[in-house]
Amino acid sequence: MNILLGAFVSGLLFAIGLGLGGMTQPAKVTAFLDVTGNWDPSLALVMGGAILVYAPLYHLLRRRQAPLFAPVFSVPTRADVDLQLLGGAALFGIGWGLGGFCPGPAMVSLASGHTSVVTFVMSMLAGMSVFTLLDNLRMRQARERRKAAVSL
Predict the structure, then answer these.
(1) Under a CB-based contact definition with an 8 Å cutoff, are residues 118 and 110 in contact?
(2) Residue whose C-alpha is closest to residue 30's, from 75, 94, 88, 84
(3) Contact indicator for 42, 22 with CB cutoff of 8 Å
(4) Taking CA 22 as the corner, what is the angle to CA 21 and CA 26, rounded to the nearest 5 degrees?
């Protein structure tokens, strides 16, 4: 039960921070991304503030043997940049620029019930589902190719 409470409190704090920082307002996000027009740099301050809080805490927490609610830390180990990473980053950026949302703020904004938010989240979930299906298919085909190569 502690892990669920910890996840809920963390998510609630994240949602409140997104709301207070204006990250749930698409117009504010698109104004931040409009660097050649009427640029609004305030979200850079929100992101900078988050980094200032996160960076020292991350280094302190990494000194622990394990996190409070898990047996080990789950930290990515890959450091390479491939086409899949670049494509995903490009799609994320295009979606953020066109919709004015990224996944976290979009989920928080669902509480508003606005059609544009619901449409964005449903499209995001559909895209994630298509990716999962295609990635599972790709991994299954790779396993079958390895199995066929071993049996030769």
Answers:
(1) yes
(2) 94
(3) yes
(4) 150
- Is residue 24 classed exposed, middle or buried when 0-12, 13-18 and 19+ CB atoms within 10 A define those classes? buried
Confirm if 111 and 121 have CB atoms less than 8 A apart.
Answer: no
Cβ contacts of residue 14 below 8 Å, gap of 6+?
104
Handedness of CA 74, 87, 132, 113 (dihedral sign): positive
Chain CA centroid to CA 78, Å: 17
Distance (Å, whole) CA 136 – CA 131? 8
Q: Is 126 helix (H, G, I), strand (E, B) or coil?
A: helix
Mean pLDDT by 10 residues, the chain (152 residues): 80 87 85 88 88 91 85 88 92 84 87 90 92 94 90 75
Residue 69: the pLDDT is 77
DSSP 111-147: GG--HHHHHHHHHHHHHHHHHHHHHHHHHHHHHHHHH
How far apart are the C-alpha atoms of 22 and 118, rounded to whole Å? 18
d(CA 127, CA 149): 33
According to DSSP, residue 83 is labeled H
